[in-house]
Amino acid sequence: MTFPHPQRDEIIALYKTGQSRAAISKMLGLTKDCVQKVLQRAAIKGDLGTKHVLPGFGIDKISEHLDASGAVKGTHVRQRVKGPMHEPPPGLPLKGVSSYVDSEGHVIGEWRLYREKMQEHETLVKALETRFANAALERPLLTAEPVLSTDQDFLSVYPIADQHLGLLAWGRETGEDYDLKIGSDRLRAAAKRLVEQTPASATAILLNLGDWQHNDDGRNKTPEHGFNLDVDSRYMKIAMAGVDLMVDVIELALQRHQTIIVRNLPGNHDPHAYVALTVGLKAHYRNHPRVTIDASPAPCFYYRFGNVFLGATHGHRMKPQDMFNDMAVTHRSDWAAADFRYFYFGHIHHKTAQEVGDVICESFRTIASNDAFHAAGGYNAGRTLTSITHHIEEGEDCRRYVNIKPPRR
Ligand SMILES: [Mn+2]
Fold first, then answer.
1. What span, in angstroms and rounded, lies between the C-alpha atoms of 79 and 236?
2. How many A from CA of 314 to the centre of ligand 1?
3. Rounded distance, CA 291 to CA 276, Å?
């Protein structure tokens, strides 16, 4: 059935003359159902007249009673009370209107939609504006320029593991020549690059993790086991070169950090030689306002920086499980006061990392070349100098690396 029905007016006119739907359908050659639908729509619109309809009532249903011949005996019009007059709900804005229209586009009824949405939206916008306004007050704006007061919240640690100064290696035997000058130049160059890229934290710790010097005296043997060592030159020359080298590293660090703490730990190669290094540095910096040479003879280094607790030792005596025990028992208050704990080892010349309890426990690569003993053992770890920067509240913040290329063979 098309809308509007082309014979709609005809159907209505016939209906108003008293013709039944059956008669109309016969007269116009339409189905009764079609006539019924046209009449229903017309009735709803009021096009059939309102003589039966009381004010305030609406036509709900029209039924006809037919006799045996199909003639209309009577018409029953059911009316329902119309709803109360529409009143918009107070305080709610009109969100939208959906109209129900007839085939000719006349509005028969409509849905009016009132919603809190707009108010919720406005409330949300206001809440967000307030939140971000407060956030801007709570935190300073990020700037590209370093701010000194921010740097006070950071500490950078430069672990120097197993420098083995004075180690002598013949490249044809080990893959790479190595001697006192090569070792010194390599650390100077790597430290320069590392300092330049490490955040300008107020404090830096130069942490010599032991075995700074390859030989502990003029016998050129390991002090505990007496293994023969290949050594470049005289003991005193190496010791003095070691002091000069560490002074150069300290001077580099002073260009980036306000305060430098230097700690030398004894290794299995230099349990006495490290004393000479420490004494030399202590004398050199005795009046320096920004350099502290920590001359503690203890084999472990402990340092608390706010919420961060650091420990370190060479590692030839202490294993990670012992470290955990020593750290907690000998430094109870620091252990308890810090949420973040770290422990740094040297000795094994390569990187390892594990978590013991909640202590992150690491060993570091050396940047020294292999000696003949290690080369014969197939030792081929990489060489890296690392800096680790900690935040005073949040723990480890970032790292910087300088990698030494392996020898080309
Ligand atoms: Mn060692």
1. 119
2. 7
3. 18
Q: What is the CATH number of domain 152-404?
A: 3.60.21.10
Distance from the alpha carbon of residue 120 to the mean position of ligand 1, in angstroms = 68
pTM: 0.65
Q: How far is the CA of 344 from the centre of ligand 1 (A)?
A: 13
Q: How far is the CA of 281 from the centre of ligand 1 (A)?
A: 22
What residues flank ion ligand 1 with Cβ within 5 A?
A: 211, 267-268, 347
C-alpha count within 13 angstroms, C-beta hemisphere, residue 110 = 12
SS3 content of the chain, % helix, strand, coil (to 5): 35, 30, 40
Q: Where in the chain is the domain with CATH 3.60.21.10?
A: 152-404
Q: Which of 309, 306, 355, 308 is nearest to 328 (CA)?
A: 309
Nearest to 325 by CA among 340, 341, 314: 341
Secondary structure class of 86 (helix, strand, coil)? coil
338-393 per-position pLDDT tens digit? 999 999 999 999 999 999 999 999 999 999 999 999 999 988 899 999 999 999 99
